[in-house]
Automatic annotation (TrEMBL):
Compositionally biased region (Basic and acidic residues): 10-25, 482-508
Gene: SLU7
Subunit-level organization: Associated with the spliceosome.
Protein species of origin: Hypsizygus marmoreus (White beech mushroom)
Domain Pre-mRNA-splicing factor SLU7: 141-406
Cross-referenced InterPro entries: Slu7_dom, Splicing_factor_SLU7
Signal peptide feature range: none
Location within or outside the cell: Nucleus
A single BP term in Gene Ontology: mRNA splicing, via spliceosome
Function according to Swiss-Prot or TrEMBL: Involved in pre-mRNA splicing.
Coiled-coil residue spans: 157-187
Keywords (A to Z) from UniProt: Coiled coil, mRNA processing, mRNA splicing, Nucleus, Spliceosome
Entry protein name: Pre-mRNA-splicing factor SLU7
Length: 556
């Protein structure tokens, strides 16, 4: 329909076609109209909503005039304002063309300059040139332009507050000195001196109206027939102090308890997170259900039910009769309940199930505080009973004197019995003999019990060859320096012999089958490695991890 307003007045045929199209769109047989953003327009929206006014009409179907305008992020916030007095860096050394002729700044002209008018400006003296100001572009919105407090710094009000506080402190000190100098004890004279220079003071009264009310009540106390008291004046004054906070001011949250201004009632508690007993005001319903208020409600309910059954009971007409009847009714109700209980127990039995032991004795667990000494004796409180397990306890089987898990073997990491050190569950106890057998079967005892190998027999030729070896070999084996480290001197003949032996050893390892022991495997354990043999091993070993092991330079 918005398009119709953009086109103008429609002919009879065009109006009929527009109506048919709207009916088809409402029926769902024709697609809905789309706005300028490609979003469909609900055909059931009335014309007075979908049709834009003449000053917002875009010439196409649209609902943009019904939507909230997008937030203008270019506009500044309300707390953003000009940084007054900010300089754009250090001042120039000499006058620049186009600058202010008075102060030499580039940001304004001579007629806008706020500096003192000089007899000879900076254009001619070329000295005392001022720095350029910071020119800010504050894009204020509709609200910011019309805010009369925009750009005001609240910190400026602190100086005014401090000034008034200092004046008030001096005035208070002056009044105290005048009161101390007074010799009379007349309250009116003291108030007159204290109120000098000030219309009202919170220490001696809030207003002239309260003073007049106080005098009125004091005069009433002095009337004929009244009992005079020295504290009557003060009592009257204290009764007039209005320090009770209003119900609707206890909690300012609008979602808190509802306050009815007509009846001045707030039924719910304003602060529900505070216990009703500790709260200053817990709601009007709290007073209705505390104290003897519930008893009055029960009495009223009893009176209504008794009157409905034909009894002449009315709480307001004769409250004493209603209360006595209610008390008699409660006694008969308790007697009837006890009688029915006794008859049921006499008929079906079960009295023994009603007499149960205390919960502490049944469960064996309490939360009593108990203090013990270093020796395990109870100092304060009584000893707490141990919690019982659902598994059977202190059950000894197969002649055992300890339970399973009472002993732990740290060498094997297994649990067993402490009486025989057996690590087999449900085994028969062997006593001290089992402990000795377990100690004898440890790996350390087995190694210590094995006989040492007999020393090998040495022939005369072998002893002579050993005596001929140089002492350097002995020093090398027993020195602190490790073999293959430091400056090593190698014998060429011994190295050649070691290389040939290393090749034979490798060939023998390749020929041996896997798992078959070599002939000299037992003799190799007592053989001392020489520097030449270690160098031969290093020269012939396969360095698989070395990426340059198989590198060949083709240019050489």
């Amino acid at each position: 329909m918005a398009s119709a307003s953009a086109i103008g007045k429609l002919s009879r045929e065009e109006f009929r076609r527009q109506k048919d199209l709207d009916a088809a769109r409402k029926a769902g047989t024709a697609p809905a109209a789309l706005d300028e953003e490609g979003r469909p327009i609900n055909p059931h929206i009335p014309q007075y909503i979908s049709q834009a006014p003449w000053y917002l009409d875009t010439g196409a179907p649209s609902l943009s005039h019904q939507r909230r305008p997008d937030y203008d992020s270019s506009a500044n916030k309300l707390d953003e304002w000009y940084d007054r007095g900010a300089k754009a860096g250090p001042a120039a050394k000499k006058y620049r063309k186009g600058a202010c002729e008075n102060c030499g700044a580039m940001t304004h002209k001579k007629q806008d300059c706020l500096e003192r008018p000089r007899k000879k400006g900076a254009r001619y003296t070329n000295s005392n040139i001022q720095a350029d100001e910071v020119i800010q572009q504050v894009a204020s919105g509709y609200d910011a332009k019309r805010d009369r407090w925009n750009g005001y710094d609240p910190a400026e009000h602190k100086a005014i507050y401090e000034e008034y506080a200092a004046i008030e402190a001096a005035r208070q000190k002056l009044r105290e000195e005048e009161i101390d100098n007074q010799t009379t004890t007349d309250l009116a004279a003291v108030r007159k001196v204290a109120k000098a220079g000030k219309d009202a003071d919170a220490d001696f009264g809030s207003s002239d109206e309260e003073d007049a009310d106080e005098d009125k009540y004091a005069d009433a106390a002095d009337a004929v027939g009244q009992k005079l008291d020295a504290k009557t004046r003060i009592t009257v004054r204290n009764l007039r102090i209005r320090e009770d906070t209003a119900k609707y001011l206890i909690n300012l949250d609008p979602d808190s308890a509802y306050y009815d201004p007509k009846t001045r009632s707030m039924r719910d508690a304003p602060n529900k997170d505070i216990a009703p007993e500790e709260a200053r005001f817990a709601g009007d319903n709290f007073f209705r259900y505390s104290g003897e208020a519930p008893d009055v409600q029960k009495l009223q309910l009893f009176a209504w039910q008794a009157a409905a059954r034909g009894n002449d009971v009315h709480l307001n007409a004769n409250p004493t009769q209603g209360q006595l009847l209610h008390h008699e009714f409660k006694q008969k109700k308790e007697e009837l309940k006890d009688t029915s209980k006794i008859s049921i127990l006499a008929k079906y039995g079960g009295t023994q199930y009603l007499e149960t032991a205390p919960k502490e004795l049944l469960q064996g667990q309490t939360e009593d505080y108990v203090e013990y000494s270093r020796t395990g004796q109870v100092i304060k409180g009584r000893e707490r009973a141990k919690a019982k397990s659902k598994y059977p306890e202190d059950v000894y089987v197969n002649n055992h004197t300890g339970v399973w898990g009472s002993w732990y073997d740290s060498s094997t990491g297994t649990w067993g019995y402490a009486c025989c050190h057996s690590t087999i569950h449900i085994s028969y106890c062997s006593g001290q003999a089992g402990i000795e057998a377990a100690q004898a079967s440890t790996a350390q005892n087995l190694l210590s019990s094995t006989p040492a190998n007999p020393p090998p027999t040495i022939t005369t030729e072998e002893s002579a060859s050993r005596e001929e070896q140089p002492s350097q070999r002995v020093e090398q084996n027993y020195s602190k320096k490790r073999i293959g480290e430091g400056d090593v001197k190698l014998d060429k003949d011994s190295l050649t012999q070691a290389l040939s032996e290393e090749k034979k050893r490798k060939m023998g390892e390749e020929e041996d089958r896997p798992g078959k022991k070599r002939k000299g495997a037992l003799e190799s354990g007592s053989h001392d490695v020489t520097e030449e043999e270690l160098e031969a091993y290093r020269m012939n070993r396969r360095m698989i991890d070395d990426p340059m092991a198989n590198y060949v330079d083709s240019q050489v």
